[in-house]
Amino acid sequence: MRRSQFSADRRGWPFYALGAVFAAYVVFLYGPMVCIYLLSFQGPQGGLSFPMRGASLHWFEQLIQQGDTGDLMGALSRSIPLALIVMVLTVVISLAGGLAFRNRFPGSGVLFYLVIASLVAPGYVLSIGIGLMFQLLGWETSWYTSALGAQLSWTLPFGLLIMFAIFGRFNRSYEEAARDLGASQLQTMVLVVIPILLPGMIAVALFGFTLSYDEFARTLQTTGSTNTVPIEIWSMTQNVTSPSIYALGTLTTALSFLVIGVSLGAIALIQRRRLGSVTGRS
Amino acid sequence: MKAASRRSGASWLSPARVKSFALVTPLALVLLMFVVAPLAVVMAVSVFRYDNFEVIPAFTFENYASVLSSHLTLSLYLTMLKLAAMTWVCTLLIGYSVAAFLVFHVRNRLVAIGLFLVCTVPFWTSNVIRMISWLPLLGKQGVINQALMAVGVIHEPLQMLLFSDFSVVISYVHLFTIFMIVPIFNAMSRIDPSLFEAAHDAGAARWQTLLWVVLPLTKSGIVLGSIFVVTLVMGDFYVVKVMSGGTDASVVSAMYDDISTLLFPHAAASAAVLMLILTIMVAAILRLVDVRQELVSSR
Fold this sequence. Notes:
The complex is a heterodimer of chains A (about 280) and B (about 300).
Chain A: H1 13-40, H2 58-64, H3 72-100, H4 108-120, H5 123-137, H6 146-168, H7 173-180, H8 185-213, H9 217-220, H10 229-239, H11 244-281
Chain B: H1 2-12, H2 15-47, E1 49-51, E2 54-56, H3 62-69, H4 71-105, H5 109-120, H6 127-132, H7 135-138, H8 143-151, H9 165-189, H10 194-201, H11 206-217, H12 219-234, H13 239-243, H14 251-260, H15 264-286, H16 291-296
Helix pairs in contact in B: 2-15, 3-15, 4-9, 4-12, 9-12, 12-15, 14-15
């Protein structure tokens, strides 16, 4: 139980002041998003702002019939597989990187700062660079080559930082115990280390999928002639002035929420089982 | 001596190291191919002539001269620095308060984790959508103007809400505060609560504990969060463009305009200048704290 003068038994004014800031922040965070979800369900006469004019699925129909958009279904058919590939690669590469960074090795410092540079470098600058590089090499840019690499440069730093945090709390004696009991390296990895790290790996997967699915600047110059969903949304902001853009927002956010819900649910389930097995045995 | 040096020579390629190298190879390859090489290409194109998708190795500073001599560049950077400063102050104040509330004031750990996730979920959804979700609120017929007029505070809709610095900074704060919350939250969680008792016993008032105990111990979090927020704003592409109503450009959206008109060398030189300025800014901030120690160290 955490006790401090900041959280004395009697709640002081800082609790209420900070609580008010927190509540205001949550409203600020979700309020606008809720507005566009509501506005996307307007009737056919609906406009870009309140009051709502009727309620219908009209703007979703518009969206799917491609009355207003270029190629939404095509964009989805690229964005989702791309996000899945990025997710798998991010988990595997971050896990390997996290394992390697447990020990210092020559070049580990340089590599670490490279990871940070990849995180803070302006996305569009990398996008230009990758686009130019592919041009100079005579390679064609496409969502599954250049855009895939561009997105990994964004998701891997997050994956690694999460892995660092997880390994910071990882108890190596489990590994040693497994080895003492005669497990091979592979067995130790598959049967001991990975199960322990699983919740963290799901978190990395969540970041990998969602950051890829919503990535814009790094993808813009690297996806070639075909669009991903965020670029489709971007081009809609330039020329669509009907609530169908809100409908697209609602749709893509619903997909994100689904992924977030599944990931967090899986993590919660694993943690609860663990808690159950620990208390059950003791 | 000899034995020692031989031992260190042998351990240079010890099995453990070979394993580390093997494990880190995919990461290194991705970063080399999609971060280092592209930045090198940008640098090369910025000093060479570039025609018909071909770099002509004729060294020239023309691109830099045109970037650096233009008044537009200076005004772009001044605008972006102003926006970054305003965003930094807002995200720091909000982020610090939110993190302090979650770490020090929410007593139940599960509730704290739940509330932390509430702050994080929007980060996993589309930034472009989150940005445009301000349009129905801030517009001339927007929710805020309607509400203010209904209450009678104003009689004419406020024009400055949308397509102004105000709406740009609001969007930045909306998108980027999470980058301040997470590192500060981390730093605060690591503070040993007994320090508060010690400060209290030593007669420190609340503000003194905040100033001399909490603030120094959360410096690393503030530094990391500041790096993220400042670089994100300086590298912003679409917020300035959309939320200023298309009148203003950011450093990066100006590059986009160059690329659209096939002025690749000019865009590359501009990118190189931006990278240099960001590197200087980050290096200056990094002097304050050893980030690697903070992020990798196992404790």
